[in-house]
Design a protein that fits this description.
Layout lengths: L1 H9 L3 E3 L13 H11 L4 H6 L6 E6 L5 H12 L3 E3 L12 H16 L2 E5 L2 H4 L1 H4 L7 H15 L4 E7 L7 H4 L6 E5 L4 H8 L1
Parallel strand pairs: 2-5, 2-6, 3-4, 4-5
Antiparallel strand pairs: 1-3
Helix pairs in contact: 1-5, 2-4, 5-8
Length: about 200
């Protein structure tokens, strides 16, 4: 409740209540779900004592409407951590430097919350100006720089789950190994997966 109150007060992130069922509520995507269960074990005390680093995040790229956002909501339930959504477009401002300041404030809140899932939906749309020229006065480039710096230097336990529909619109710097633990392609469901979705 206290974490939810902090998120509401700061107004730079959205709080999402967990969905019932966790990863069991996601039809198909068995390999992704299996990986998420295994990756979640890295939060355990045994993993820490062994020296395994905490999960950093994943990028889900694929066809719209195939379960990327639903999976993001299910992870927080499965791992029993808060789900925070960052709308990078909403953090943009017409004043010079304020967009970047808003992002840095959001990152400070994420670090203060501790273990959580930070969901950045349709990230390629938020960073479009960084790859298609400076039509927005460099705001998107500044946002990309702030995001990359935070992802590289962060010490907290937030799991960054970014979703995108068009990988060709993403800046190459974001796809470099080390920003995310893994990149996943989410395709239209197979006939077997469609049965699972209906169930």
């Amino acid at each position: 409740r206290e974490k939810k109150r902090v998120i509401t007060r700061e107004r730079v992130l959205e709080w999402y209540d967990p969905i019932s069922g966790g990863l069991g509520a996601v039809g198909g995507l068995e390999m992704l779900k299996e990986w998420l269960v295994l990756r979640g074990e890295a939060y355990s005390q045994e993993a820490r004592e062994y020296g395994l680093p905490p999960p950093r995040g994943a990028l889900l790229v694929g066809v719209p409407g195939c379960g990327k956002s639903h999976t993001a909501k299910a992870i927080s339930t499965a791992w029993q951590v808060p789900l925070l959504k960052m709308d990078m477009g909403a953090l943009k401002s017409k004043f010079v430097g304020e967009s970047e300041a808003n992002m840095r404030r959001a990152f400070r809140v994420v670090e203060a919350i501790g273990r959580c899932v930070l969901w950045i939906d349709e990230i390629e749309k938020s960073l479009a100006g960084a790859t298609q020229g400076a039509a927005d006065g460099g705001v998107s480039s500044d946002a990309l720089g702030a995001l990359l710096s935070w992802m590289q230097e962060r010490q907290g336990e937030a799991f960054v789950l970014a979703t995108a529909n068009d990988v060709s619109q993403l800046p190459p710097e974001l796809l470099r190994k080390g920003r995310f633990d893994e990149l996943w392609f989410v395709d239209v469901p197979t006939p077997t997966e469609r049965v699972a979705v209906l169930k």
